[in-house]
Amino acid sequence: MKERISGLRNESSKTKRTGLFKRITAAFPLPLIIIYKKVSSTSLPNLSVFWHINEGIEEIMADHVHQEMTRNWILVSFRLFLLIVIKDVFLSLVSFPNKSKNLMDRTHPWLLRNISALRCGRNVQF
User: Fold this and answer.
1) Does residue 78 lie in a domain region?
2) Which GO terms describe its biological process (predicted)?
3) Per-residue pLDDT tens for 7-65?
4) How many Å is the maximal CA-CA distance in the chain?
């Protein structure tokens, strides 16, 4: 039987490079977040996460949305949403550079009271 030649077998260098970059950005943020002591120095892992999210959504859109105009409209809307989220993340990093990394230090006082009450065994209604 004759072996079938497929265009998918021989990947282009761009496809290989993009695939490698996707794998790197998927594995890249976690070690950097663990290594960095300052909250403000996590901007590179955050950018990596946002880039990876964007690439993943583009891949999903390419596979499942077949209308070019609809796909482009969704991607433009998503990128606008992603820019707003990126802005908020980086502003929060700049706003709280000297704050403690402990999440409980920035939690609302009402929630802290209820959490401490639950730890003491008292009934609390949320």
Assistant:
1) yes
2) mitochondrial electron transport, succinate to ubiquinone; tricarboxylic acid cycle
3) 555 656 767 777 787 787 777 777 776 776 665 566 777 788 888 888 889 889 989 99
4) 74
